[in-house]
Write a structure and sequence with these properties.
Blueprint lengths: L1 H17 L6 E2 L6 H4 L2 H14 L3 H17 L10 H12 L3 E2 L2
Antiparallel strand pairs: 1-2
Helix pairs in contact: 1-4, 3-5
Length: about 100
């Protein structure tokens, strides 16, 4: 019973952590004023596109590897990148925003 509770807690934390990505954007970079006023709309659109093109198993696999398996291997393997974050970053860059992270 205790293992089941721990597993459910880990899954909930993983889901909450996956939703937390907010890119750092320089509104004076690239095209500046031409695209800065559209940032909120572009961000929500890009998040919807990323959500539609990624699955939960990939997110869980990435989190488990980065936070549990990789430390046990002394951080020798490279960190896995979250597909959803890279889709959001690329989408915003293609729409003219200067994404810093």
């Amino acid at each position: 019973m205790k293992q089941k509770t721990i597993l459910m807690t880990m899954l909930v934390c993983t889901f909450l952590n996956a939703c937390a990505y907010k890119p750092i954007v320089d509104h004076r970079g690239n095209k500046g004023k031409d695209v800065a006023y559209r940032y909120n709309d572009d961000l929500e659109t890009c998040k919807a596109i990323a959500y539609d093109n990624s699955n939960i198993l990939n997110k869980i696999n990435t989190k488990v590897f980065n936070y549990y398996i990789r430390p046990s291997l002394l951080w020798l393997p490279d960190e896995k990148k979250d597909k959803e974050q890279s889709i959001i970053r690329k989408c915003l860059q293609e729409r003219g925003h200067s994404v810093l992270n």
